[in-house]
Each structure stands twice: as C-alpha cells, then as structure tokens.
C-alpha cells in the first residue's frame, strides 16, 4: 500500500505551524520495510524540520513499542546534544583537521565521532566509562577471573560485571520507559553517599531519597539531613583535613563533624526510647552503614547469582567517590577475596572514556531457523555484514580493525533473545542452549532455535594509557619483600569489632610498589578515602591497590532482635525471592515454617498474596512426611483456596537444616494447560487438571510419568474434554519452577550457614512483626484523623451481584474487621473468586498504604479479621469455576470499596486504588 503523501504533508504542515522543529517517525513494520519512513523523512526535511528521528535508523529490531519509545527519546535528546556540540566545537577550529578528532562515549562503552552521537545512545555514557575503566585496568587475562564493578557515588551506586567480554543488553527500561538501544548492563541502586538515613516503624532505612548536592549531607553546613556520608564522617572513616574548605553558605568552610555527632545523638535517643535499648550513637551510625552495604549487595547478587554466576568467584573493582569506604564490607558480605582499587578510582569513569575503543556496529533483522541446513548461509550473511562494518568511514584512520560477530537467538515461541558470539570452531547453537539454561534454569526440549537478528561489531582498539593489570601471582611474589610503609598520621576510627581503634593513615601516593598495609588502616589522597577493615590487608602496585579481604564470624543473638540486623535480614530475604524469580513469568516467595509469607520479589502480588493458603494446606497435609529434596505441586482452589484459577501451578520446596528445622520456598507460574481459561466454564473440571497435593520430586526423581497421566490422560475422561495439548511445555515450565526453588535453596542455606537456622527463623518472625506494627499504626492514625471507626460500601458486578464490605477498626489496638457479609452468592459462571483472592487484595492494598520500607508479608494482614460466609462470590464451593475470578472480581473487591469508603468516611486512602486486574509488578515497583 502506497503512502498517502498529501495527507502526510498536511499533517506535517500543521505540526510545523505549531512551532515544532524536531519530530519522531515510527511505523509498524519499518524495521524490515523502511520505505514509508524514508518518504516521510524526505517530506519533513523539505518543509524545514531541523531534526528528524526515523525508527529504522534508531533500531533495526522488531517490537514497535520499545522502538517507538527509543525514537521519541532520540528526537527529544539529540537536538540538545547537537546544539551543545556545535557550541563546543566552535572554540576549536582544529577539529576540522583530519589529524584532530572529537569523539564521545556511548552507553555501550565505545567512542563515536561527534557527528554520530545521538541522545538515545548517550543516556548511560558516564557509567559505561567506568565499566571500560575497570575492564581495561583491573581484568587479568591470565587468570580470567571475572570482575564485579562497584561504582559508588553521591546519589546512587552502579554495579556491573566483566568477564573478558562486555556484558551488553539491547532492551531495557530507563526512567520507566522500555527502549531498544545497545548499552552495557549496568544496574543502578538508589544508595550512595548522599542517601538519607531514616528510622521508621522500628526499622533503619537508607534511601532511596538523596540529599543531593544541595543541601547535601548534614556535614555540608547547609541544613541537610543525615546521610551515609555523615555516618562515615562520624565514625572517622572520612578525614575533614583531606577535604577542601568549600562548604557552608559561603562555600569557604570545612566539613562539620560536630553537627553530625549532635544529629546522630538526637536520632539515637529516639531509637533507644522507641525500642527500649541503650545503643550508642556510634552503634547507630555503624548500623546504618551495615544496612547500606546490605542494600548494595542485593543488585550485585542479582547480577551474578541471579544469572547463574557465583559472586564469590569474582574480584571486586571498587571506584567512585564513596566506593573505597565500603569496598571491604561489600566484598566480605559477598564472599569475595580480592578488591581492586585503581589510583584514579574516584574519577575512573572519566579515565575509562579515554581508554575506550572506537567502534562501528552493523545490525540486520533476520528470521531464520538455525540448523545444519542454514548454518553456512547464516555465516555467509555475517561475513558480508562484517565487510560493511570494517569498511565504515568512521574507522578509516585506524591501521587495524577487529571484527566480532553475534547472533540473536531464541527458542520458537519465545520472546527472549540472547546474544551469542560466533567464534572460530564454536557452536552457536550449543552456546545458546547453555546460556539459556544458565540464565533461566531450564532449556526447552526439541524446540527449534531461530536467529532473530545478526550483528557485527568492528573495533579499533584504543592505545591510550598503559594500565596492564598485575596478576595475583605477581603480587604474591613481591608481597612482603618491601619494607612496610610509614603512616602519615593516626586517626580514631570506629569498627563494629573491636570498636574505636587508633588507626594509621597512609598517603596513597607514598606507598612503595609491593608494600603491604595491614588493617585497620585508612589510605587517602586528594580525591578518595579507602577504608581497610581490621581483618583485611592491602598491597600496592604501580596502578592498583589490591585488598585481600578476610572474613569475620557473624555473631548474632538467636533470642534478642537487633534493630540493626532487622533491616539487614529484610533485604536478604527479599534478595533470595528476587533471585529465585529471575525469569519474568515466575513469582517466588519465602515462607516461615508455619506457612506465613515472609518476603516476595516484585512479581505478581495478586498471586503472591494468595499462595499462603496453598503453603498452609500442604503443611497440614504433609506434616512429618517430607524429607530433604522433596518438591510438591498444587493448583486446587479448594485445597486451601490456592490461586486465582487452576492454570496457576505452585511448586513448593521445604528447606531443612541438619536438625530437621525447615523453611518453605515457593515458585508459581502459569503454564498453558488444556482449556485452562475457557470463557464459558461453569464447573472447575472444565478449567483444566486439578492437583490437590502432588509429590513432584522425591530422591531426585521427577515424577514425569504420573504427571503426564494426570495432565493428559485423566482430563480426557471428562465428557467433551481432552488432555494437555502441550505437555512438554508444561513440564519445561514446571522444571523451571523447580530450578527457581533450587536457586532459593542454595541462597537460604548460605544464609543459614552465616547465621544459623534459629537466627534466620527468628528474623522471619520479626519482619512480620514489623509489618504488623506498621499496619496497626496505620489504622490508629486513620481513626484519629477522621474520627470514624466503622465504614462500609457496596459495589456490583455486571450481572448485578453485589460485593459488600464493612470495615470496623479497633482504635485501641489498631486491629480491624473486614466483613464481606452481604456479598452475593457464587455464580453459575467462572468469575467466582476463592478466598485466597480476597486475602491477596486486602494484603496488597494495606501494604500500599503503609508508608514504610517493608516487604509484602503476612504481618500486613495479621491485625485483620476477615469475615466471608461460605458459598459467596468471594468464597465459592469447591466445584465452582474460578478462572476469571481474579481479573473480574479483584478490581471491584477492594479498589471500588476503598473509593466508596474514602468518600463516606474519608479514611482508607487512594493507595487501594493502585490494584488493577492481576496487579502487575509495575505497581509494586512504583
């Protein structure tokens, strides 16, 4: 179909008349057919538009939404960058000379000529410079030990990974917007030196709010809040004498430690009064640093263990202004033995830009099965694309250019493509299968593999700098042969153990190559402070300070709750669930031995909030019968009111210690079962196979034969029914859930090894107690604010069935009764909602209303008594169809009620309205 040129011209004229001079053009299939976009571009250019972003140049990949978002970002940012570059270049006439080049960093860690820089590709250029910096200065190609990059600045921390090859991603979400653009895989954490320290609901919290540069931390003398920087300063880990006098209203004063000490004492008094303890201000400040380190370890574990890598088998490259103050603690928490700190670590991102290569990429959309019959033709297409990339004008002035070839491969029916390098003598197909299994925990059987895109990168290596990193063997050879360095001074510094210590301070530039510094110690220069903990040491090389990290046995009481350890465990529990659910379609959670929800990752809260019923039912069924390695499967709405509908399989795995004490891990997904979502089902058996309690794995044996009988043979006995149409897919999905739980088992056992089972179980209860306390405070606050403790409302389904809710709050103890009496009876249809859904809706809504850094857990609903009579829409009989109950009833069950309650009594606030159908994970992340 031809483009309607006249209509297009008229529309562009209207836009031009409104004053717009930059436009974005994105058409549905332009990644493979760009002709219409080119026509629109030509018309727009003739009309005088100054900048035109067309999507097929921005991204040659399918998926119009991220491609369209990327095009809009490009057209928004690029004109501003071009204006800046024009003004900058005007001051340097030599840039027009062939011998003087102006190049800029991109988010994928490479340099491009100024004329080629676009806004889309420069979003993360700063963090990318840091990745290049530590990759070129710290990675040892002899040992091939991968490196974790830890870049801690003022407002945030960036973490990344390098194993000899840059870790690129091509689809990501930036500022909430999904985009398509090659960039280094850098995870940003809202925790930096300026992160604000908060005590709330008996929990220490760090960030995500930041004091920013103004007013900045309290020590900046501008009335700012207590921050991580203040904690380090108060404990002696920062030395004011090594900072310039640029603080205060006139920017001419030094850091103010006195105001920081006074503010910490005020906060300590509040904490001690609330929890009836006798903590010192130093213990409180150190506690906040422990929480900070735990927060930062979470994304590192996700980047490593969440993708099948052992964090302990890495080096840690620490850089950024605040990195050196936390590096030892981060490494110890992750089990990492060595930390590498470059002499330019505080400005390593800038230094890395100078070390970056000049690169040109070529990419082509592709759609071909990869097998023996197509292998040679795919390789031929790659060679042709390589020739184009290496001969690009950008690389003409380089004498040597390397070419790297990649295939984007995915399983038939999957939307997840992985980039696989094509190497001489390698097998891309097997590499893809291995990479998929490592990242997602499973590989489909007998599934075709497609090549989605082909990509070639031509690389001209930078020769700037001489930063060849030393091998660890070389360090061992020279260590101890050089006389110890002489400290420049001594400083009193607080360490968790042994407390305040007179600590030597060394000047980084004065350390002889090969000299060793024993901790505790501080190493400083004009731009950084490095803290060497008591059980650590450091060896100086020409360009690096290499820290050897020891370990300190954790001693945590199993009988008394420590207010410092409580938020630490909160983040550890959350991290386990998050890493279990590293595949996007599996929701995962951790439960205490009694089946109470402890923590979940931000997946699907409507499902997570209901799994408790499944877990408790299985505990009742299997008490005393389970053994280590057993795995259970269930999906029956009647068996504890398990899930929204029968297609959702729950896989439950108990974790035992040597004494038989247990913790429950749970993974839930929705594999495509036969007739699992029929639009007109009236009875439960019409919605798929129902599993009350099925022993899926015992003694390492997966019960596939029995599973096939129950999924394929038994359902076919029902009139007009058949078994699963895709049994192998069902098995693959369920095995992926088992793999997710196995990942959780390893992480939980690691936690138990660190702290003991008694301690872990005690803090499981303590986290729920904190959530319960926050919920009770919420109810008391609402009654006090609005002077009403009884509120009610009613709403109606499309067929007229009422949903009635009356909430009665006890203002004395903060408990509440949610009474759904008056709700209509179950229906002869499939929008009945099991009681688990009612529970999930209430627990999620309450969690949204609690303004605190708490995970969604059972404590949120402990103060609630729910009254739901039998055989109502919200508590149907065991044979009632339920597959649509979640998506149809939930939006009425809580959000509408909260609206009416808010109108009638001005109490339960808009937070309950956040729960749309299925309550997508985006809501939790917001």
UniProtKB/TrEMBL annotation:
It comes from the Eukaryota. GO terms for molecular function: 5-oxoprolinase (ATP-hydrolyzing) activity. Residues 67-361 form the Hydantoinase A/oxoprolinase domain. InterPro entries: Hydant_A_N, Hydantoinase_A, Hydantoinase_B, Oxoprolinase-like. GO terms for cellular component: cytosol. Residues 3-48 form the Hydantoinase/oxoprolinase N-terminal domain. Residues 562-890 form the Hydantoinase B/oxoprolinase domain. GO terms for biological process: glutathione metabolic process. It holds the Pfam family Hydant_A_N. PANTHER family: 5-OXOPROLINASE, 5-OXOPROLINASE RELATED. Belongs to the oxoprolinase family. This is Hydantoinase A/oxoprolinase domain-containing protein. It comes from Aspergillus cristatus (Chinese Fuzhuan brick tea-fermentation fungus). The lineage of its organism: Eukaryota, Fungi, Dikarya, Ascomycota, Pezizomycotina.
């Amino acid at each position: 179909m031809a483009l309607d040129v006249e209509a297009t011209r008229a529309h562009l004229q209207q836009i031009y008349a409104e004053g717009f001079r930059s436009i974005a053009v994105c058409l549905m299939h332009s990644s493979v057919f760009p002709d219409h976009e080119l026509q629109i571009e030509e018309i727009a250019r003739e009309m005088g538009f100054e900048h035109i972003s067309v999507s097929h140049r921005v991204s040659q990949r399918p998926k119009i939404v991220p491609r369209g978002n990327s095009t809009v970002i490009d057209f928004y940012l690029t004109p501003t960058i071009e204006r800046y570059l024009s003004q900058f270049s005007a001051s340097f006439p030599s840039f027009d000379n062939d011998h003087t080049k102006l190049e800029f960093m991109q988010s994928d860690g490479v340099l491009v000529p100024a004329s080629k820089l676009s806004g889309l590709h420069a979003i993360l250029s700063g963090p990318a410079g840091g990745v290049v910096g530590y990759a070129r200065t710290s990675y040892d190609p002899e040992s091939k030990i991968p490196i974790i990059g830890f870049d801690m600045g003022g407002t945030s921390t960036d973490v990344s990974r390098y194993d000899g090859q840059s870790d690129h991603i091509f689809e990501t979400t930036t500022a909430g917007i999904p985009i398509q653009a090659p960039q280094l895989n850098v995870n940003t954490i809202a925790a930096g030196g300026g992160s604000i320290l908060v005590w709330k609901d008996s929990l220490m919290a760090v960030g995500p709010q930041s004091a920013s540069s103004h007013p900045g931390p309290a020590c900046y003398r501008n009335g700012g809040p207590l921050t991580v920087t203040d904690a380090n300063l108060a404990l002696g880990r920062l030395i004011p004498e090594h900072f310039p006098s640029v603080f205060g209203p006139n920017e001419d004063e030094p850091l103010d430690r006195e105001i920081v000490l006074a503010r910490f004492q005020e906060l300590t008094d509040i904490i001690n009064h609330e929890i009836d303890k006798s903590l010192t201000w130093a213990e409180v400040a150190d506690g906040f640093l422990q929480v900070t380190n735990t927060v930062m370890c979470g994304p590192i574990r996700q980047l490593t263990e969440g993708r099948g890598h052992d964090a302990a088998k890495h080096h840690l490259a620490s850089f950024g202004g605040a990195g050196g103050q936390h590096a030892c603690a981060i490494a110890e928490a992750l089990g990492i033995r060595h930390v590498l700190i470059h002499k330019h670590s505080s400005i390593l991102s800038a230094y890395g830009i100078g070390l970056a290569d000049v690169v040109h990429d070529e990419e082509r959309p592709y759609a071909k099965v990869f097998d023996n019959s197509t292998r040679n033709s795919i390789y031929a297409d790659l060679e042709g694309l390589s020739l184009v990339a290496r001969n690009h004008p950008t690389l003409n002035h380089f004498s040597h250019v390397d070419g790297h070839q990649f295939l984007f491969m995915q399983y038939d029916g999957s939307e997840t493509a992985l980039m696989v390098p094509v190497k001489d003598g390698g097998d891309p197909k097997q590499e893809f299968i291995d990479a998929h299994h490592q990242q997602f925990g499973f590989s489909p059987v007998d599934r075709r593999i497609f090549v989605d895109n082909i990509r070639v990168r031509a690389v001209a290596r930078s020769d700037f700098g001489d930063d060849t990193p030393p091998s660890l063997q070389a360090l061992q050879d020279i260590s101890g042969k050089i006389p110890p360095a002489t400290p420049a001074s001594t400083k009193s510094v607080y360490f968790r153990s042994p407390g305040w210590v007179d600590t030597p301070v060394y000047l980084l530039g004065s350390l002889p190559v090969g000299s060793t510094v024993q901790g505790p110690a501080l190493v400083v220069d004009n731009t950084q402070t490095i803290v060497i903990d008591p059980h650590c040491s450091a060896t100086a090389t020409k360009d690096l300070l290499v820290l050897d990290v020891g370990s300190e046995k954790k001693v945590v009481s199993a009988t008394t709750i420590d207010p410092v350890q409580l938020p630490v465990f909160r983040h550890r529990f959350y991290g386990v669930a998050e890493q279990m659910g590293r595949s996007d379609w599996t929701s995962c959670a951790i439960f205490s031995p009694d089946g109470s929800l402890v923590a979940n990752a931000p997946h699907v809260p409507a499902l997570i909030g209901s799994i408790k019923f499944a877990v408790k039912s299985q505990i009742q069924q299997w008490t005393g019968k389970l053994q280590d390695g057993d795995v259970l499967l269930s999906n029956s709405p009647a068996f504890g009111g398990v899930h929204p509908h029968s297609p959702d399989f729950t896989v439950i795995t108990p974790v035992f210690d040597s004494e038989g004490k247990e913790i429950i891990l749970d993974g839930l997904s929705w594999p495509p079962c036969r007739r699992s979502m029929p639009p007109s089902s009236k009875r439960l058996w019409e919605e798929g196979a129902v599993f009350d309690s099925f022993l899926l794995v015992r003694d390492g044996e997966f019960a596939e034969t029995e599973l096939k009988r129950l999924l394929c043979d038994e359902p076919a006995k029902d009139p007009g029914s058949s078994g699963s149409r895709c049994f192998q897919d069902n098995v693959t999905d369920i095995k992926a859930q088992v793999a997710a739980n196995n990942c959780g088992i390893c992480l939980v056992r690691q936690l138990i090894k660190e702290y003991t089972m008694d301690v872990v179980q005690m803090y499981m209860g303590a986290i729920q107690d904190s959530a319960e306390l926050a919920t009770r405070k919420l109810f008391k606050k609402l009654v006090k604010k609005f002077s009403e403790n009884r509120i009610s409302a009613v709403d109606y389904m499309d067929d007229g069935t009422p949903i009635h809710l009356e909430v009665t709050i006890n203002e004395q103890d903060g408990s509440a009764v949610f009474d759904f009496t008056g709700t209509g009876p179950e229906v002869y249809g499939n929008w009945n909602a099991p009681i688990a859904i009612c529970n999930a809706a209430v627990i999620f809504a309450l969690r949204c209303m609690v303004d605190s850094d708490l995970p969604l857990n059972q404590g949120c609903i402990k103060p609630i008594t729910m009254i739901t009579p039998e055989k109502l829409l919200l508590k149907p009989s065991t044979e009632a169809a339920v597959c649509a109950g979640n998506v149809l009833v939930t939006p009425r069950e809580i959000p509408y009620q909260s609206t009416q309650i808010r109108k009638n009594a001005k109490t339960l606030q808009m937070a309950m309205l956040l729960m749309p159908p299925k309550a997508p994970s985006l809501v939790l992340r917001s």
